Predict the 3D structure of the following.
Amino acid sequence: MSAGGDVSQDKIQKVTIIGSGPAGYTAAIYAARANLEPVVFAGGPTLEHPQRVPGGQLMVTTDVENYPGFPEAITGPELMERFQKQAERFGTVIHMENVTKVDFSKRPFLLESESGIQVRSETVIVSTGATAKWLGVKGEDTYKNRGVSACATCDGAFFKKQDVLVVGGGDTAMEEATYLAKIVNHVTLVHRRDSLRASKVMQERALNNPKISFLWNSAVEEVVGDGKGMTGAVVRNLKTGDSQLVNAHGLFVAIGHTPNTELFQGILETHQGGYLKTIPGTTRTNIEGVFACGDVQDSYYRQAITAAGTGCMAAIDAERWLIEHGE
C-alpha cells in the first residue's frame, strides 16, 4: 500500500527513508523540500512484532503535551498524521510496509520491501526506531496509555500528586523514578533483585529520595484497574512467594528498549546495546551514503522532538553528501 504517488523501479532515487515516526517523516519533509523526491517505507507489523505500526511509538500514545507548538495537547496518532501529510504535501512517496532486504555493498543501494517493491537509491536514511520492552503480564496491554507507560518524561505530568510504580533496576529506572518523584505523590520502585544495577550516583539519588520506596526481590504479576484506568498492581515477592496489591494509578516500565536494527545486523556498526553508531555530531554511519536518525541511534533521549531534530540532520547530511559526490 502506498501514498503520494508511485515509484518507478527503473529510476534511481536520490533518498530512500526506511522507517517513519518523527525522525523519518521530518527527514522526508526536509528532503522533499530540497527537491530530493524521497521515498519512505513507513513500516508496519511483523510476525515478531505484531504491535508495530507506521508512525512509531507515538501511534500508541494518547495525549502529547510536550511537543512544541501544541499548547492544547495533541494525540500521538494525530501528530503523526500531520507529519505524514506534511511530507506528502511536498511530494514524498510513502509505502506503508517494511523493507525486508538491503544491499549496501555498492551504489546505488538496493532495497526490497515485503511486497516485492525494489528501489535503487543513492542514499538511505534509517529511522526504524526502537521498541520498548514490556513485562508481558496480565492487564498490561489493557491499561497501556491508561496508567501503563514506558516513558516518564512523556507521561509523568498526567500523574501529578498520585502514587505510581516504576519497574527496573538500571540507570533508566532510577532516572524515571527520580524524575517522577518531582511530580507525583510517591514512587514505589519494584526490582527483581536485592541490589540495583544502576550506577552508584544514580542509586544514591534514588535511595536517598524520601518520595521513593523500594520493593526488593519482587515482580509485577498483574496490572489491575476499573476498566477506565489502572488502579494498582499485584506484586509478588520472589523469595517468599507472597503477593500483595499495591495501589497506584501509574506503572512505568523501565527495563529498556530494543532498537529495531535486525535488518542491518552485520552491515551497519552498532553500539553494545544494539543502537546504530553514527559519527558524533552527524547522522553518518560507517557506510558512506547511509545515515541514521531517531531512536534507532539514540539510547539516551528517546523523545519525539529529538527524533525530529535528527531527522532534519539526516536529510541535510544526505543532501550535502549528494552534492559532494556530484549528484
About this structure: The chain has six helices and 20 strands. The chain has a mean pLDDT of 93. Helices lie at 21-33, 76-89, 152-155, 171-181, 200-207, 304-324. The radius of gyration is 21 Å.
